[in-house]
Predict the structure.
Amino acid sequence: MKRILFFLFAVLFVSACTKNDESAVYFTDQITPEGFAKVYEKISNELEGKVGVKVHFGEEGNTYYVKPDLYKNIVLDCNGTFIETNVLYKSPRQQTESHIALAKSHGFTYAPIDILDATGEIQIENVEGCQHYNKFYFGKNLDNYNSFLIISHFKGHGSSGFGGAIKNISMGFATPKGKLAMHRNNFPVCERSRCTDCDSCVLECPANAITSNPFSIDVEKCTGCGKCIDVCPNDALRYPKDKQDVQTVFCERLVEYAKAILNRHEKMVYINVLVDISTSCDCSRNPGKPFVPNIGILASTDIVAIEKASHDLVAKIHGCKDPFLEAVKTSGLRQIEYAFEVGMGNKNYRLINLDTDETTIVRTE
């Protein structure tokens, strides 16, 4: 009896000590409008005033972007406006008019659409804790909003390992000038012994920067997007491994752009959708087949916690510590670590399963 009481006391003591030490992350495996409503209910009280809903409209030809009908009810509930910025590379999403037309063709028709950089850009300077930048460039219309609902498709990415909420607000809110700054000097190299001159990279390159026979990349045109790496069937393309790892720097650049946004606009809540988890992003016309089954939807007010929980769930299903390193050949863990280091959120979290009412505490330190 004494042993039982001691055990119960120990459990209660640990719970009391850690109760406020983890961020809440809500989960459902229902990838349906009802599932979205479940997780949204837990975070929606943080939204106020004019709400910007950051999504990805999907590249022309891409079918893996999260379909807007799934979250129609929650966007209408918060009276949200879809927000995006124009892209750096040649695409319908490069110009505002064709960007909006593509979005509507993909089903984004039930709420207004605001391309944030259509009227210009704003510059943010001297963000504390950032080592790569002292100036950041974002769409001018960003400051028209009081709070933000960030809906992110959590999937692989050739340059950053994975793309989730951090990439959605960093690359997604930046103007082409800011996007170019993040991709700067991020030029792939080719291992000629693996290359078969299949031209997959030439056909996929949105900047027309690659030629073959012999292979070359025009660094004046290259935007460093990494799409050529994603589509190469022979793993012949990679980022160079110099004294300072280019891929690590790219992850840190993403985080710093996200931190600049969060310093300016604190009212943000996040929904990550773990569906169609392919090796490439929604900017790709040919993102490859999903490498794990669909998992579910997560929501949180903590960007680090939701990214960590999303990565942990993919790792659990895939059966390894770093699934994106295995599947994409690029690790995204530096995003999470660096975001924690610069004070953007908490790596410790409580995963609250809304389907079973079970809570799992995950602590990393």
